[in-house]
Write a structure and sequence with these properties.
The chain contains 13 helices and twelve strands. With 349 residues, the protein is an alpha/beta fold. Helix 3 packs parallel to helix 5, helix 7 packs parallel to helix 8 and helix 10 crosses helix 13.
């Protein structure tokens, strides 16, 4: 029997960011599940993004079978809508993947059109139950078509993790693109406040410097934290695994309003690292008071949350890993259901 076909349109690395990584790894999961996948990369700066979306249209027109579309956010959603219109004109079922919480925060003309045009055979893939509830409330016509697929299955999980214990020195970690929007300055401020309160701690920062403001925040941290700040640069593969092995608590102080379900939090829980994170998007549901704690104002609220976790680090480390296992179990059920949908669609090579 020949493999079912799927055209996957979305951003693929490079550049490396949350949506491109998630798209690549989900498409890999489809391929491992026996789906024949044709990839169309539409990542890049605005001019290239416009061109690649235009070039994707004939690829949709000449093929058969379902189309997976990794939805753009902000004004880019209109480009995703154009892809959907052509797919529906070709009577191709659509799998629409929502990576940005902005798409479900409030009604928009573009997403309203998306919900109207997607057809009864479409699947609207979201990253958590909160996101599903928000989308269904905004667009009731999507009842029965919203599909929850969390991000836990898209990260590499070690077979075993270090059991963290309370000790004389606490190691905090920050991992991601270093920008003010992602909160590197706020992570530094939280570390400063802990040190000022007498906490013996180190802040380990990993990731590329992506803005002048972030570089200034690091320079300021070096001046005030001294050797309590360790900057590792960008880390991948074994270097990333070593980062998670080294740290006790992950800091995720993002102020990015489109934040949905960050892969780095899944990676932290997979490694038995509890997190303190800003209360955004799907994060409260992802952590669920097991993978760590969420706070409203990171600079002022995070030090207390960090101290609470640090006082019973072994307990919270174990709970973080348990939460990841729970999420992974949910993911495996969902991805199996999604693969059954694709393999029973009747569209084969």
């Amino acid at each position: 029997m020949r493999s079912p076909r799927l055209l996957a349109v979305g951003p693929f690395p490079p550049p490396v960011h949350g949506q491109s990584l998630a798209t690549e790894r989900l498409v890999d999961a489809f391929a491992k599940g026996g789906i024949s996948v044709e990839r169309v990369d539409v990542s890049g700066p605005l001019r290239r993004k416009l061109m690649t979306h235009v070039l994707a249209l004939p690829r949709i027109l000449v093929g058969h079978g379902p189309c997976y579309i990794s939805l753009n956010s902000n004004s880019g959603i209109w480009l995703s809508l154009a892809l959907l219109v052509v797919a529906r004109a070709r009577q191709r079922p659509a799998l629409l993947h929502y990576h940005s919480y902005a798409l479900v925060r409030e009604r928009s003309a573009a997403v309203d059109l998306l919900s109207r045009l997607s057809g009864s055979g479409s699947k609207h893939i979201v990253l958590g139950q909160g996101m599903a509830a928000a989308l269904s409330e905004l667009y009731p016509r999507l009842a029965g078509r919203v599909f929850v697929l969390n991000n836990s299955g898209l990260v590499d999980a070690p077979a075993s993790t270090r059991q963290r214990q309370p000790g004389p020195r606490l190691t905090l970690g920050f991992l991601g693109n270093l920008t003010l929007e992602k909160g590197i300055d706020t992570a530094v401020e939280a570390a400063r406040r802990l040190v000022a309160a007498g906490q013996n701690c180190t802040l380990v920062v990993a990731g590329p410097i992506s803005s002048p403001g972030a570089e200034a925040a690091l320079d300021s941290a070096r001046a005030t934290l001294g050797d309590r700040l360790v900057y590792k640069g960008a880390v991948y593969g074994s270097a990333k695994a070593e980062f998670f092995e080294e740290i006790d608590i992950l800091l995720f102080p993002s102020r990015y309003r489109n934040e949905a379900s960050p892969l780095v939090l899944m990676e932290a829980m997979a490694n038995g690292v509890p997190a303190v994170a800003t209360k955004l998007g799907c994060i409260p549901g992802d952590l669920a008071d097991k993978g760590g704690q969420t706070v409203d104002d990171f600079a002022s609220d995070a030090p207390a949350a960090i101290s609470t976790i640090a006082s019973r680090l072994d307990y919270h480390s174990s709970r973080a890993r348990q939460r990841f296992v729970e999420l992974l179990g949910e993911y495996e059920v969902s991805i199996a259901a999604l693969l059954r949908t694709l393999t029973s669609s009747g569209h084969r090579d």
